[in-house]
Specification:
It contains two helices and no strands. It is mostly helical.
């Protein structure tokens, strides 16, 4: 059966109808090969683009991670300094109360009028600063951000 098809195809070379069909098959096969080649090239380009994007995103993640770690370290340092200052303020407030008690006793014993300063209660008025307002000194590099 296969030999008959081969004979038929070899015999059909002289027939113009079969020649046109064979030419169309050949052109379609060439077109399909070209289309497949373009598709493979397109997929390769997409893969290369994704690999480059992955590399860029990993680089960005490293930069952001360093930035976050630096900010967290700064936060921890500020939190530690704030805790120290809060403890110091509580200690000074307690010392002021103690001194005020001594002044009250001295006022009662001596009969002299002594001005006793009021101790601010930060819980009643948390928006008020319990100490006199003083200018805050800042250095030029205090607000520099070198995370990027």
């Amino acid at each position: 059966m296969a030999s008959m098809q081969r004979q038929a195809s070899s015999g059909s070379d002289s027939d113009p109808r079969y020649a046109a069909i064979d030419e169309r098959k050949r052109k379609r096969m060439i077109s399909n090969r070209e289309s497949a080649r373009r598709s493979r090239m397109k997929k390769q380009k997409q893969l290369e683009d994704l690999v480059a994007e992955k590399s860029q995103l990993q680089s960005d993640i490293c930069v952001f991670t360093r930035s976050i770690n630096a900010a967290a370290q700064n936060y921890n340092e500020m939190e530690s300094a704030n805790n120290f200052l809060r403890a110091q303020a509580m200690e000074l407030t307690e010392r002021l109360r103690s001194l005020n008690t001594v002044l009250q006793i001295a006022e009662e014993v001596s009969g002299l009028s002594v001005e006793i300063p009021e101790i601010p209660d930060p819980l009643l008025k948390p928006w008020q600063i319990p100490c006199p307002v003083q200018p805050i000194m800042a250095s030029a590099d205090m607000f520099q951000f070198d995370g990027f």
